[in-house]
Write a structure and sequence with these properties.
globular, Aspartate Aminotransferase, domain 2, seven-stranded mixed sheet, 17 strands, disordered N terminus, 46% helix, alpha/beta, Aspartate Aminotransferase, domain 1, 2 domains, binds D-serine, four-stranded antiparallel sheet
Length: 485
């Protein structure tokens, strides 16, 4: 099998070898629980025949997927490279060191930590590394102690109270921030006293003067930048300036756009890594790896991040760290830069496809990998639009828009992303067609009564759109040449 990072057009041998591997694996699974083998086959069939436009999803290469199915899954390895709480971790050390090395090289980071199991875990590691560095370490020094276990119960209570009384400033949820950036339903909101910065009500863009004013007033320990539904680029140099002015640590969550950073679409002030003290990401979105997380850090924060397990995390998923190493190796190949640029170009095309057909986009367009469509102009909630699109084989997710009148459950927006279909080989023309099909569904769908969930789409529209999208999908197959029977 050749390591072809352009999984949309792998060589014939690659497809044939991957087919053989999956057929063998499914046969083994089938012998124990045939329903799981069947669900696995069906998932591939469903993914092959739907327009996957969820901005946080992608298709990992067979090399990445196959790497996850090994006996590394069976090994405990709490601790860090060369310093484990279990014996016989020599091969896990190799895997984790390689994942970290690829991450450091790819992102130009002094330090990388490959253990987080997900984005929330990566953010928790980052938060606690910052708290350990900025609150616990000086607290211990003040009390003349080296280790938390050396403190009296009373002193530990004083330090614990300090750890639990810190401030965090992040982007508001309705303007594109993420739940893990200090919001109450998530543990981050229970840990920190949180405030949000939003976007300008007219332009929808981040107003850096407003962020600065909020930071000066609130004086956070941590300034969080990064988003999951903001369709624009961020100037991380400015964010760092603001953090420095108020003595905050800049943490950037680049989960959504890590692929654009890796592919050098975001450079200079738009590359978070040289500006942030700590950068977190997931590995499965635009980065196109296995499901998981990653933390990058400066030398100052590296020692605390390195204690992520067991401070915050359970035993590392060694099989997933191995797959991270493979995916990061793929992302270091020149073809990944072409892929990342295509993701951004395709988002432009999708946005223009919408605006040229009269649809309203939050911020008027995009300059990253995602587009946020305001569906109120179609007289629909996000929930109704999401369901009507799904009936037509178009997989998206509803999302709040700034000052959303329908709240976070029903919402008024649909978020679209280009990473997955770009992996399949979709280009500008296909994304313009996607916009046409989406507008066709939404303009032929009506809300039923006053319900925020019920809707009706004109007869025949869903079937027509599904047929048109199936044609495009057949011309750009997922895992071309991969056959399971
Ligand atoms: N679930 C991811 C997203 O869709 O943005 C992040 O939580």
């Amino acid at each position: 099998m050749t390591a072809d990072s352009s999984i949309a057009a792998p060589g014939t041998d690659y497809a044939a070898t991957a087919s053989e591997a999956y057929r063998a694996a499914l046969k083994v699974i089938e012998s124990v629980e045939p329903r799981i083998a069947e669900a696995t086959r069906q998932e591939l069939a469903d993914q092959r025949d739907s327009l996957k436009l969820i901005a946080s999803e992608n298709y990992a290469s067979p090399a990445v997927l196959l790497t996850m199915g090994t006996w590394f899954s069976d090994k405990y390895a709490e601790g860090t490279i060369g310093h484990r709480f279990y014996a016989a971790c020599q091969n896990v050390d190799t895997v984790e060191a390689l994942a970290a090395e690829h991450a450091r090289e790819l992102f130009g980071a002094p330090y990388a930590y490959a253990q987080p199991h997900s984005g929330i875990d990566a953010n928790l590691v980052a938060f606690w590394a910052i708290l350990a560095t900025r609150v616990e370490a000086p607290g211990l020094a003040e009390l003349g102690a080296k280790h938390v276990n050396d403190l009296s119960e009373a002193d530990w209570e004083t330090l614990r109270a300090k750890l639990g009384n810190q401030r965090l400033l992040g982007m508001s949820l309705d303007t594109g921030g993420h739940l893990t950036h200090g919001f109450r339903p998530n543990i981050s909101g229970k840990m920190f006293h949180q405030r949000s910065y939003g976007t300008d009500a007219q332009t929808g863009l981040i107003d850096y003067d407003a962020v600065r004013a909020a930071a000066k007033e609130f004086k956070p320990l941590i300034l969080v930048a990064g988003y999951s539904a903001y369709p624009r680029r961020v100037n991380f140099a400015k964010m760092r300036e603001i953090a420095d002015e108020v003595g905050a640590t800049l943490m950037v969550d680049m989960a959504h756009f890590a692929g654009l950073v890796a592919g050098k679409v975001f450079t200079g002030d738009e590359d978070p890594v040289p500006h942030a003290h700590v950068t977190t990401t997931t590995t499965h979105k635009s980065l196109r790896g296995p499901r998981g997380g990653l933390v990058l850090a400066t030398e100052e924060y590296a020692p605390a991040v390195d204690k992520g397990c067991p401070m915050v995390l359970g035993g590392p998923l060694s099989h997933v760290m191995a797959a991270k190493a493979v995916a990061l190796a793929e992302a270091r190949q020149p073809a990944f830069r072409d892929y990342a640029q295509a993701v951004a170009d395709n988002a432009q095309s999708l946005a223009e496809g919408f605006t040229s057909r009269g649809a309203r986009l939050v911020t008027g367009g995009t300059d990253n990998h995602l587009v946020l469509l305001d569906v109120t102009s179609f007289g629909l909630t996000g929930r109704q639009a999401e369901s009507a699109l799904l009936d037509a084989g178009v997989v998206t997710n509803r999302n709040a828009i700034p000052a959303d009148p329908n709240g976070a459950w029903y919402t008024s927006g649909i978020r679209f992303g280009t990473p997955a279909l770009t992996t399949r080989g979709f280009g500008a023309a296909e994304f313009d067609k996607v916009a046409e099909l989406v507008v066709e569904v939404l303009s032929n769908t009506q809300a039923e009564g006053t319900s925020k969930a019920k809707y009706a789409t004109a007869d025949g529209v869903a079937a027509r759109v599904h047929a048109a999208s199936s044609e495009m999908l057949a011309a750009n197959p997922l895992y071309p040449g991969l056959t399971l029977s």
